[in-house]
Amino acid sequence: MNSLAKIYAMINHDLKNPRYKAFCLNVLGGKYSQLFTTTPAARKWHHNYKGGLAVHTCEVMVIAQQLANYTDVDHDDVLISALFHDFGKMKAYYFDENDNIQFCNDGDRHVEDGLEIVKELFNPHDNIGELYEIVCNSIKSHANLPEWGALKRPDNNLEWIIHLADMYSSKIKEVHKFIKE
What we know:
The protein is mainly alpha-helical and 181 residues long. The protein has helices at residues 3-14, 18-28, 33-38, 52-68, 75-84, 89-92, 110-122, 130-141, 157-180, and strands at 93-95, 101-103. It is globular.
């Protein structure tokens, strides 16, 4: 099963709120669906290939769900925050004519770009407005440090879960390499 199929399965099986489920399925099948499955997750460090964003997002969703089992954090909030945490990378990177990954603007602005996308996606959906601030705060804090692009530090269990899952996914290849040595 590929990463996108796993993401759909998690949304269909693990999201409990039917409004949230319908919203996520609509987003994944909407105007960002092609970019989501072809964009890299980074230029150099992790998942830096076509489709890397979907693979990274899937890993973050799986890891975040496992971490959430040890807290009282709402699992729907965890899955949705994990799904959207790096959506801004669809506006941050592109492949040039030589298939090299380039920034779309002056450097990596994926946090700011993610906030713009989420604002666009959530505004017409007032029936899930309670999620908007939760997702925005997870996007702002998932990188943890300002020098890594964070607009704020994580300050609750949900934000720490998204940050830790993101960090683990971005390092998993190196962890496996280290274990094999």
